[in-house]
Every structure is written in C-alpha cells, then in structure tokens.
Amino acid sequence: MASINKQSLMAVEARMKDLMGRRTIAAKALCSKYALEQSLNIKKKQGTAQGAGFYWTNRTSLAIQGIRGFTIDEDDSIGFGLSHTMEYGVILELGKGRKYAVLEPTIKEVTPKFMEAVKRVFG
C-alpha cells in the first residue's frame, strides 16, 4: 500500500483550490452574463418608443432606460439582480397590485435556467 506524504497532500489541496477558483470565476462570469442579458431582454420587450410598451406605457422612456443588471458577490454568495434607477421604479414594481412589475417576474422566470447553468459549472 502506497503511503501518502505531506507534499502530495499539499499538491492535491493546491489543485483543488485552483479548480474551485476557476469554477468561482466561471460562476461570477455567468452571473454577469445573466444580469446583462436580462436587463437587455426587458428593454427589448418594452421598447423605447413613446407610448409603446410591453409592461407599461412609456411616457419618457426613462424607466426602461434605467433598468440595470448587476452581480452579487458578498461573502460566500454570488448571484445577479435587476434594479430600477428611476425613483418611481418602486411604484412600477410594487404599486397597482404589482401590475407593472417586471424585475421580480423576470428573475423568477430565468432562475431555473440560471441554476442549471451554475450546476454545470460546478458539476
């Protein structure tokens, strides 16, 4: 039976850390990809023409132009999110029984696909 020495264990540990580091970088890139894609998808659906709109009636197009995707990288958590930059984005999302909400429904819609992609990264 072969004996395992300290140097071999340290080499295995270094390889594992390297692999986890690469997978973490890949997962963060995936978060960035989803954040950008989903903000662009919302903008594409909504359109920017005065009066047109999938989610609400555009009056100035500022709300749709102000939708941003962002990545979350805190402690041991990574992910992505969407936000409004206009003050009245909160009203669009929460007012009128959430009739004009777009951020949370979009996140809920893509979460299963996103989680499958993350699982493939960490295989």
Explain this structure.
There is one protein chain. The chain has 123 residues and is mainly alpha-helical. It has one domain. It contains four helices and two strands. The protein has helices spanning 6-46, 62-65, 89-94, 103-122, and strands at 68-74, 77-83. The chain has a two-stranded antiparallel sheet with strand order 1-2. Helix 1 runs antiparallel to helix 4 (103-122). The radius of gyration is 21 Å and the shape is rod-shaped. The two termini are 31 Å apart. The mean pLDDT is 89.
Radius of gyration: 21 Å
Strand content: 5-15%
Which structural class do you get from the secondary structure elements?
mainly alpha
Let me know the number of strands: 2
Major sheet description = 2 strands, antiparallel
Strand order of the largest sheet: 1-2
The number of domains is: 1
Number of helices: 4
Shape: rod-shaped
Distance between the termini: 31 Å
**Helix share, percent:** 55-70%
Describe the structure concisely for a colleague.
The chain has 123 residues and is mostly helical. It has helices at residues 6-46, 62-65, 89-94, 103-122; strands at 68-74, 77-83. The chain is built from four helices and two strands.
